[in-house]
Amino acid sequence: MPAGVFPCIMYPTYTEHKGKGKDVKYRKLGPTGLNIAEIAFGVWTVSTGWWGQMTETEGAALLEKALYEGINFYDTADTYGEGLGETILARAFPKKRHEIIIATKFGYDFYNFQARAGHRERPQNFTPQFIHYACEQSLKRLKTDYIDLYQLHIPRMEHIRNDEIFATLEDLVHEGKIRNYGFALGPDIGWFDEGAAAMRERQAKSVQIIYSLLEPDPGRAFFPVAQETRAGLLARVPHASEILTDKFVEIPTFEPGDHRALRRAQWLRQAMEKRKHLLFLAQGTGRTLAQAAIKFCMAQPTIAAVLPNITSEADLKEYTAASDAPDLTADELARTQELLEHNYYLEEGHREEFRSSQTAPSPTGIQG
């Protein structure tokens, strides 16, 4: 049976939620059949403590407000907060399951390896037995009987080329436990070969990437592959550690434990210099710099949604208002393209290494 066909399974009718605040626009996520808000909510900000501290009550309230503003797509993972990233969705939307679209992820074995050093990756497990177990646990935490998008969390090439994994996922589709499966690349920039293989060899319906005005590559290389294969892309961190917002006018420092503290000092210095060249996108244009950064991503038709770091109600209102903000003009896009091609006319400095399965193999059980 062709991938993605749901035999004899009747999912509840999804109710598109038009926000009572700003009207968020919606796009189709590749061939998934999901119509998602182009500004989506990455649940990592309210469940991991890596973007500032927030109580569970505060996080659930922010998620509820996001639905009010028109956001219907929530991207989480089983490992966020050791399950909190899923239970908080159940808490926020106890009677609104059919108004929201849930994407979660699997692959990290936090059940048997709970200890970790800082933000270091936990061991991965993509065996059929673990996938079935992880899916059942996610369903319980989410208090639902189906997952709209089930994503391989940071897969390496060995996983993408493992037929057993995808036979297992097809079984879950046929059982009605998941509607679609996709890929979330990372945890940092790179992973082009893995993303291209997912789209070309596994007919990926959805691939999550890093893409922004400050980190456009290898994101740009995914666009023709996505167009060729009809895959839908999800672009996370469009503000590049909030450099492309008005939160910082000088080189920021982050608290220990904040995920953004992993940025190298040289990258931050260069990013702030590049930011100066982009201020024209917010000067007399009817949009903020943060909204311009979102609009830059959404200028790509293969991108279905962006996943900014939403950490407050102010963030939520500003980012969702990007939907109604003016699109970047042809001249503005041409100018940004020129800046990208010339590295913002800065002297050659530090360039981030693009990681891959060869340079960052799958973590094993010896890592705690």
Structure description:
This protein is an alpha/beta fold and 368 residues long. It is built from 11 helices and 10 strands. Helix 1 crosses helix 2 (84-92). The longest helix is centred in the middle third of the chain and has 15 residues, at 128-142. The protein is globular, with a radius of gyration of 20 Å. Residues 1-11 have low confidence and may be disordered.
Q: Which terms summarize this structure?
A:
disordered N terminus; TIM Barrel; 368 residues; globular; 8-stranded parallel β-sheet; 32% helix
Strand order of the largest sheet: 3-4-5-6-7-8-9-10
**CATH superfamily, please?**
NADP-dependent oxidoreductase domain
What is the top-level CATH class? Alpha Beta
The N- to C-terminal Cα distance equals: 40 Å
By DSSP (H or I, 4+ residues per run), the number of helices equals 11
CATH topology: TIM Barrel
Please tell me how large the radius of gyration is: 20 Å
Helix content: 25-40%
Number of strands: 10
Largest sheet: 8 strands, parallel
Q: Could you name the ranges where pLDDT drops below 50 across 5 or more consecutive residues?
A: 1-11
Shape: globular
Rounded mean pLDDT score: 90
SSE string, helices as H and strands as E: EEEHEHEHEHHEHEHEHHEHH
What is the total domain count?
Answer: 1
What is this entry, summarized?
The chain has 368 residues and is an alpha/beta fold.
Tell me the layout of helices and strands.
Layout: E1 26-28, E2 35-37, E3 41-42, H1 56-68, E4 73-75, H2 84-92, E5 101-106, H3 128-142, E6 149-153, H4 157-160, H5 163-174, E7 181-184, H6 192-201, E8 206-210, H7 219-229, E9 232-236, H8 265-278, H9 289-298, E10 303-307, H10 313-320, H11 330-341
Parallel strand pairs: 3-4, 4-5, 5-6, 6-7, 7-8, 8-9, 9-10
Antiparallel strand pairs: 1-2
Helix pairs in contact: 1-2, 6-7
